Amino acid sequence: MSPSPPTGPPLRLLVLGGTGFVSGAVAAEALARGHDVTCVARGTGGAQPPAGARLLRADRNAPEGLAPLRGIRFDAAVETATLSLPWVRRALRDVSAEHWTFVSSISVYADTYTPGQTARTARLRPALTDVGTYDPTVDPEPSQATYGGVKLACEQAVREATGDTAFVVRPGLVVGPGDDVGPFGYWPLRMARGRAAAVPAAHGADGLALPAQCVDVRDLAAWIVDRAAARASGVYDAAGPPVPLESLLHEVADAVGHSSLELVPVPEGVLREAGVRPWTGRPSMPLWPPRELYGALSRDVSSSFDAGLRVRPVSETAQAVLSDRLGRGAGTPPVAGLTPVEEASLLRLAGV
């Protein structure tokens, strides 16, 4: 899918971020459409915004870190702050923008069990309004309740400052080239190796089909830029249509799989007996969801498609992820999944 051409005059766009997975994709999409892009980031860790973007180096932990932006008018601002309510409040105070986008998360929803929920029907987690700047060195894996609560508090701050004019997008699992930490990236690499590949059995111990739902970061970025250009508002989830995990893995296999590839379903009981973790981590079976995530991976996103979200086939994402990972070197141990030795041990336990 190629970037859409500008539908109006170029935007003067501020991306609060620009060096991360999602924020970098937003900046790249906007630049590809001819918009004028300024990114705000520390710029000290080696990561840089896409070529063509203007970088404003700023420490957002400092109370006056965004002071240089005061008096500058932007057509639109995209805020991607992960776990810092103070960052969001300071941006709303110091940045002048005609339109705001806040990238939130489906972690704001309290019920992750029930399929078919929408942004209008789902219960929200309690917002955590007294949270300071998130320090990953202290809490490298925040609970979903903490993460969702902070995101919801940030949403509320955006609405209080902008009224009903902001676009609040709640992504689910975001995948695509450039992602080194999510569970999806394991599968294109594994399928490309060929031979017998251990995959989760299609149904869990309770007999329910395992669900899957994701969105390519490039499609998310395109939608965000579309909505900013249209000065559109509302609260929406961002995800592709829900599908069975079995179907998603077969689509990945068909797109990048070696001719010798055989997918071997491993029952849930065998996975647990082998000490394999669900979803992510090491060792794990990536994208194998625990029961409490079935609803989070089966959301009704029809209203998002009505509002212009368009998603590419999973096969296209798999091909791009494989090319990206191989191009950057895929020899390091995976952050999610199984090593070849761990997978061979699991297949023996499964009787293969």
TrEMBL record:
Q: Give the InterPro entries listed for this entry.
A: Epimerase_deHydtase, NAD(P)-bd_dom_sf, NAD(P)-dependent_oxidoreduct
Q: Name one GO cellular component term.
A: cytoplasm
What residues does the NAD-dependent epimerase/dehydratase domain cover? 14-178
An example Pfam family from this entry, by short name, is Epimerase
One GO MF term on file is: aldehyde dehydrogenase (NAD+) activity
Per its UniProt record, what SUPFAM superfamilies does this chain match? Answer: NAD(P)-binding Rossmann-fold domains
Going by the entry's taxonomy, the superkingdom of the source organism is recorded as Bacteria
Name of the protein: NAD-dependent dehydratase
Query: Per the UniProt entry, what species is this protein from, by scientific name?
Result: Streptomyces venezuelae
**Lineage start:** Bacteria, Bacillati, Actinomycetota, Actinomycetes, Kitasatosporales
